[in-house]
Specification:
This protein is of the alpha/beta class. Helix content is 53%, strand content 10%. The protein contains 19 helices and 12 strands. A 7-stranded mixed β-sheet has the order 3-2-1-4-5-6-7, with helices on both faces. Bound molecules: 6-phosphogluconic acid (6PG).
Length: 494
Amino acid sequence: MTSTAQFAPAPASADLGVYGLGVMGANLARNFAHHGHTVAVANRSIERTERLMERYSEEGDFVPASNVEDFVASLKTPRVAVIMVQAGNATEVVIDQLAEHMEEGDIIVDAGNTLYKDTRRREEALRKRGLHFVGMGVSGGEEGALRGPSIMPGGTVESYKRLGPMLESISAHVDGEPCCTHVGPDGAGHFVKMVHNGIEYADMQLIAEAYDLLRRVGGLSVEEIAEVFESWKDSELDSYLIDITTEVLSHTDAKTGKPFVDIIVDAASQKGTGAWTTQTALELGVAVPAIGEATFARAASSSPLVRSAVRDAALDGGEQASGFDAGADRDEFVAQVKDALYASKIAAYAQGFDEIAAASELYGWNVTLADMARIWRGGCIIRARFLGDITAAYEEDPHLASLLVAPTFAQALERCLPAWRTVVATAALTGVPAPAFSSSLAYLDQLRSDRLPAALIQGQRDFFGSHTYHRVDDVDGTYHTLWATEEREEEKWD
Ligand code: 6PG
């Protein structure tokens, strides 16, 4: 049913506007209103605007608009319009409509999960028209949008001067500090949000692997695993994701009386940000195996035909009955899994921060890594005690080659390494898949190796494609071996 109601055009009285009133947009608008801002609200279909006014108009100062023109006219100058619609074409359409009615110096903010390359393109186009375009990451889900998200805005410093105080007022706060800062120019905000999500995928996968190992190898019941996770809240693993894992595992399905986790189809979905983080890392030449494995694990879980074909074809995991008995000393195994989880988590976060550093360097964004960790301490999905330690590590040395070498984490890795190896080996021996645990360990082992078999790869490349190599005794020189000749003579090319 289409509503015919119209809101009367209002004078320019709103501090900012939110366009797109799905749950996220509506909650963001309410959050701004709760903090004393006058908020213009509009949506493509007017029913959502009407619903927001019916339900929440008492909560603060809202200025409803029936269409884009009235919405823009109701904003104080320089105008700020926050868009919260589906990424892709819907966002493009709304940006065009807003820009048509806006004037030089006005600010359009895209608060959706948009690919940073689109943001860079749009920012450049709108800049030419005298408008500011801010790609802004918002994390914390629906509840966060309402009660205090972590906010990652990009765009110009000038736009942040107008926007920043409003955003900081509605963001989560930790130790009195807002979980919001100006990330950097053009697409920096959306880039950092993308990597946040990639890390989110890795963290969730690692927790899921820990659960699976405790259950299938350690022999713990779902209830016991929930208790184990609950106890980890008192440790360096304390995080929102551990909290919600405990909640999910503690839940019993009302219909069957089974653990809730057992009635969910084991196929994990994704909307694309993990894949973007992985693809982008490949483009930048940065290793993010934990994020990649987490993304691939979702894909593998969601391939029912392949899974059943492989299961049916004698590859059914018979080795799981190999006689390994982690249950013999359950407490020790639980402690080992805990160490493996923490060490893998350090590796996964190190990879994500490396990716941000590489993009910041390439695009000249000057992203302050300590600030990214700081604004992720609260509000967002990966919020955790651990992020306070990452903040401190980057504050102490902003040019850390890797988080792995920060003293706190280097010591933790050293302490966890024996247990980590045992858990990864146990996973392999028992046939319980732990791709993120194992790839994180392999990542550390690669980085700590004195010599890597990459030398052999260079030899192979030179053999079949004259791709050349450098010699250890002349690293700046470029060499090729004449493999087809009997003498295998070496040539120096430059
Ligand atoms: C957040 C979340 C949010 C969304 C994820 C889910 O930070 O609030 O990351 O952005 O829940 O994108 O992604 P998937 O559907 O791909 O798991």
